[in-house]
Write a structure and sequence with these properties.
150 residues, 4 helices, 28% helix
Length: 150
């Protein structure tokens, strides 16, 4: 795996950063998923598998309704020599609008995560995500007002 700083202009990095910038930052271009992901794109997140671009777009749209002004920023990115597998550490922030079924309070929240992608046909094809959801949930139900992130 190579470090992002060594490979700043290479294709895998651009694909992931475009995804973060276009889909997970305002104005949240959900249609960019059609351009960046394969038709059979699959993501496994929180143990749940979502298959197909249409279903993924629906999932992202629902998530973004619960996390207003969602923004995901890359922290670090690596990929293999074949440029078909990518790992990104990232942070996501926004305003709570009912995450995990808790009361919407418009509170600024954040969480971190790691995503592993597989590239096929010059598009993101499959993804496995682990995120600090438990810690975010604990913050939401505790009533803490953390806002020193991002």
């Amino acid at each position: 795996m190579k470090n992002e700083q060594d490979l700043s202009n290479h294709f895998p990095k651009k694909l992931v950063l475009d995804f973060f910038d276009r889909v997970w930052s305002a104005p949240h271009e959900l249609d960019a998923i059609d351009e960046l992901m394969t038709e059979d794109y699959t993501i496994t997140t929180a143990g749940k598998k979502i298959t197909g671009r249409k279903e993924f777009k629906k999932w992202v749209g629902e998530f973004q309704k619960q996390l207003l002004d969602a923004k995901t920023e890359n922290i670090e990115l690596f990929y293999n020599e074949k440029k078909d597998k990518i790992v990104s550490r990232w942070k996501c922030s926004g305003k709570n609008n009912g995450l995990f079924g808790v009361e919407p309070d418009n509170r600024f929240v954040f969480f971190t995560g790691i995503a592993i992608w597989f590239i096929k046909e010059d598009r993101l094809s499959e993804c496995w995500v682990e995120r600090s959801a438990y810690e975010l949930y604990q913050d939401l139900i505790s009533g803490k007002r953390e806002n020193d992130f991002v």
